[in-house]
Amino acid sequence: MKKAFSVLGMGSGIAVVVLGFLMLFGVLGGNTSSATSSSYLYPSGYATFGADFYTYVSNNAAEAASASRVAANNLNTIAKTIRTGSGILLIGFGMMLLCLFGSRLGAMKDAEVNQAKLNDRIKDSVEQALESKKDLFVKPEVKEENIADELPTL
Fold first, then answer.
1. Contact predicate 83/26, CB 8 Å
2. CA dihedral over 144, 146, 151, 152, signed as positive or negative
């Protein structure tokens, strides 16, 4: 179960790295480009009545349009910066996940190899001990003799 979890974690790390690159290169995050045109730079002057009033309104509308275009371009720049920063953060987070779960998976494989070696050593040690002490586990043959013959006489 732990091995599957580590492999799943590494897979999610790869997915996050891919998403980070997609975001970094602008595939994800939306298209933030906007059309630009020359700005209007007409001095508005004071509002007066008559024909000058209409020139005043037209110049102010042009200035408002120019200001909104500049604001849109500024937001576009901010959006691109956020998208690039988010992509870089996602790439870093994905690489961290890959390293974390990869090291865990490697540690688990090392532990399995070490456990197998330890089991082999234990098995070999037990077999050697049994071979060297084999005669201890064999019951000696008991001869049935009359013990009275061996007792000293008084």
1. yes
2. negative
